[in-house]
Amino acid sequence: MFVSEKEIEIRYAETDQMGVVYHANYLVWMEIGRTSLIQDLGFTYAGLESEGYLSPVIDLSIQYKAAMRYGQKATVRTWVESHGKLRSVYGYEILHEDGTVAATATSEHILVKKDSFRPVSLRKIDPKWDAKYTEIQRAAD
């Protein structure tokens, strides 16, 4: 299974009044992780958008395990959990510097035409990208 890792320096603006990272910031970090994974594989989400396609989130699940705070560094680990004809599910672990799991998550995405929001298969848009996701998906293990 291919796993992309991206380090995030936690900024003060990402914390709440308790000094803990505000829960919605984990979603931003997951987006950073997906973008990093895609780039590590040699593709770009911006390129997909420029071709007239979007990949909206249709489902999201996150479990918070251990609070993170300002001044710490988080590592976002991202992989392709499963990849099918129309849906891709990404898996995530967000880790403290010592390896403690701060959160785990999955996000499910579809690929749609920007102008109509009609679903389209990645295989039709970019067969190499589709093949790479099929190859590295965790579900294939």
UniProtKB/TrEMBL annotation:
It comes from the Bacteria. The keyword Oxidoreductase does not apply. It is an enzyme of class 3 (hydrolase). Gene3D superfamilies: Hotdog Thioesterase (3.10.129.10). Its EC number is 3.1.2.-. The keyword Phosphoprotein does not apply. CDD domains: 4HBT (cd00586). GO terms for molecular function: hydrolase activity. Pfam families: 4HBT_2. InterPro entries: 4-hydroxybenzoyl-CoA_TE, HotDog_dom_sf, YbgC/YbaW. Keywords: Hydrolase. Belongs to the 4-hydroxybenzoyl-CoA thioesterase family. NCBIfam families: YbgC/FadM family acyl-CoA thioesterase (TIGR00051). PANTHER family: 4-HYDROXYBENZOYL-COA THIOESTERASE FAMILY MEMBER, NOVEL THIOESTERASE SUPERFAMILY DOMAIN AND SAPOSIN A-TYPE DOMAIN CONTAINING PROTEIN (0610012H03RIK). This is Thioesterase family protein.
